[in-house]
Amino acid sequence: MTTQHHADIETNRPLDEYAEAEVQRLLTEDGRVAEQGLTVSRREHTLILCGDVESVQRRDEIVRLVREQFPGIDLQVDIGLTRANAPAEAEELS
Amino acid sequence: MIRIAAVGDVHIDKDVVGRYRPALEELPDKADVLLLAGDLTRHGTEDEARCVATEFGGLGVPVIAVLGNHDHQSDSPDAVTRVLTDAGITVLEGTGTVLDCGGARLGVAGVKGFGGGFAGRCASNFGEPEMKAFVGTTERIADSLADALHSLDCDVKVALTHYAPVPDTLVGEPLEIYPFLGCYQLGRAIDSAGTALALHGHAHHGTERGTTPGGVRVRNVAHPVIKQAYSVYHLLGDDADIESPSLVHAGR
């Protein structure tokens, strides 16, 4: 988890439900991201991004874009990398 | 015994190529076939499809896929399909294929699927043309899955979709987006054809296990759900000899 706190919460885009919706659409519709599997939520003045992505580069790009387009907000990033190890067991369905 | 490996929502692009390969090298020891449950790319471009072909081509077991909504983003699903097919990956859409798994015939029918929702909370084919087009798409795709499942001449049938056929495997997702994650019509198609197992992806925050109203086991194999390169399911507990399977029939 990485957390970035911004001391100055004054912003031209207040952290309301419209901003939350815009972030959700940014994550899906921006061609540099295209993530539909992330959860966006608000807790008081903090915007929380949660979920898994396939690479470190994708996580970094998400954080960069959200910070760029929503300057001044408290952003908590809880985005993990999806593990890609071989399975240790099989499920018997017979 | 038939051993089925499956994963969906791998969203491959250049930055992911090579991540799965160490686990995939073990695949022939663990499974007879690999099923890919859609969202293979990020935006459905040919370049991304080539990355998928690099990652999931030449594995030593047959690879069967359906496309997902991400694979349609660039409006060129046919090009994506062509790149994957050229790499030896069988891409299903309202079609089926049968593998010989050491004497047992495994049939796989697949469609991308579509949204619409589930019993009591589903969209209706009524009103504005946009709504009719939405639900009409759902019904057409589900009908094509039913036709493909019924056309399989095999011992064991597996349904492969991207969208979910039941709400069970969506638990964890916001209730409000269930209609965008799947539809009951896919479940009804699966139940109509004596299917043994249904695999899907799409719901990254869902859960792995579910059951159709008709008792067919459903597994959500979206990569963020299974949290490993692929899951393996064993079907048919008989003593059928396991040998390298081969594609014996494709298309419909």
Automatic annotation (TrEMBL), chain A:
<protein>
    <recommendedName>
        <fullName>BON domain-containing protein</fullName>
    </recommendedName>
</protein>
UniProtKB/TrEMBL annotation, chain B:
<keyword id="KW-0479">Metal-binding</keyword>
<dbReference type="InterPro" id="IPR051158">
    <property type="entry name" value="Metallophosphoesterase_sf"/>
</dbReference>
<dbReference type="InterPro" id="IPR029052">
    <property type="entry name" value="Metallo-depent_PP-like"/>
</dbReference>
<dbReference type="Pfam" id="PF00149">
    <property type="entry name" value="Metallophos"/>
</dbReference>
<keyword id="KW-0378">Hydrolase</keyword>
<dbReference type="InterPro" id="IPR016538">
    <property type="entry name" value="UCP008292"/>
</dbReference>
<dbReference type="InterPro" id="IPR004843">
    <property type="entry name" value="Calcineurin-like_PHP"/>
</dbReference>
<feature type="domain" description="Calcineurin-like phosphoesterase">
    <location>
        <begin position="2"/>
        <end position="204"/>
    </location>
</feature>
<protein>
    <submittedName>
        <fullName>Icc-related predicted phosphoesterase</fullName>
    </submittedName>
</protein>
